[in-house]
Write a structure and sequence with these properties.
- This protein is of the alpha/beta class.
- It has a domain at 14-88 and 201-269: P-loop containing nucleotide triphosphate hydrolases (Rossmann fold, 3-Layer(aba) Sandwich), CATH 3.40.50.300.
- It is 35% helix and 23% strand.
- The strands form 2 sheets. The chain has a 6-stranded mixed β-sheet, with helices on both faces.
- Helix 2 crosses helix 3 (121-134) and helix 2 runs parallel beside helix 4 (150-163).
- GO terms for molecular function: ATP binding; ATP hydrolysis activity.
- Keywords: ATP-binding, Nucleotide-binding, Transport.
């Protein structure tokens, strides 16, 4: 099986975010979540949005998903403006209740395929089992969500998203609610799946170690409102640069220095 993105020219960006400003309204205020953020994602990238809480990472992911319209800038997938949600982008959230509790693992994945009109009957069941096997849950195909651990539920959600074979898989802090050991295991599972299918991933996290491990490209966003601070490459091993600093240390220093500067500005305001 091949993802549709693999059929396109590998040299052109799959996703282009150009000067995107995002806002949302609370009861009291109009909040600017991101300000003129730009980046490109190539096919088979594991692209990570990293930054402190409140920097607009999740809001930006929802905009890529088509759920929020930019007030400024454009988002294009395969050269076409993103205006609404579609099966070419699948979202995986951190919540464990994203599965239908009255359906088994197999039925949850099949339902996504049939409800989208992508396929029906035996074809949908075969594809569902193919991806359930890829996340090592074949033995639990006929189990209901309430019998599964948190990590297993997330693997079902990933299988469901991958079964749709979208152009890009969007993951919003999918492992944040897991215990530390399960979180590391799920990161390794995700990388194993990527090695197998080379899908394109846009991954949101506020964890520096997770970003370094999961991503091959990391976009660092500033504190609210989110703006691009830097883009870095990672090989998953937290490499040491010529000055003897690890990638994670450089990222941490940038985040800490920015936050400290903001505190000092407020103190002297």
């Amino acid at each position: 099986m091949h993802w549709r993105s693999a059929l396109n020219n590998q040299n052109n960006p799959l996703l282009s975010v150009d000067g995107v400003t995002l806002q949302y309204r609370t009861k009291e205020h109009l909040v600017t979540a991101t300000y003129r953020v730009s980046f490109d994602i190539l096919r088979s990238d594991r692209f990570v949005l990293l930054g402190p809480s409140g920097c607009g990472k999740s809001t930006l992911l929802k905009a890529v998903g088509g759920y929020i319209k930019p007030v400024e800038g454009t988002i294009r997938l395969n050269g076409t403006d993103v205006r609404k949600p579609g099966p070419d982008r699948m979202l995986v959230f951190q919540e464990f209740d994203q599965l239908l509790p009255w359906k088994t693992v197999r039925q949850n994945v099949v339902f996504a395929l049939t409800a989208s009109g992508r396929m029906s009957g035996r074809e949908a069941d075969e594809k569902a089992m193919h991806y359930i096997d890829k996340v090592n849950l074949t033995k639990f195909a006929d189990s209901f969500p309430h019998t599964l651990s948190g990590g297993m539920k997330q693997r079902v959600a990933i299988a469901r998203g991958m079964a749709m074979e979208p152009d890009i898989l969007l993951m919003d802090e999918p492992f944040a609610a897991l215990d530390a050991l399960t979180r590391v295991k799920m990161q390794e599972e995700l990388l194993r799946l990527w090695d197998d299918t080379k899908f394109t991933l846009l991954f949101v996290t506020h964890s520096i170690p997770e970003a370094v491990k999961v991503g091959n490209r990391i976009l660092l966003l500033s504190a609210h409102p989110g703006q691009v601070r830097a883009e870095m490459n990672s090989d998953g091993t937290d490499p040491v640069d010529a000055s003897g600093h690890k990638l994670s240390e450089r990222i941490e220093e940038m985040l800490f220095r920015e936050q400290q500067t903001k505190v000092e500005e407020l103190e002297h305001a």
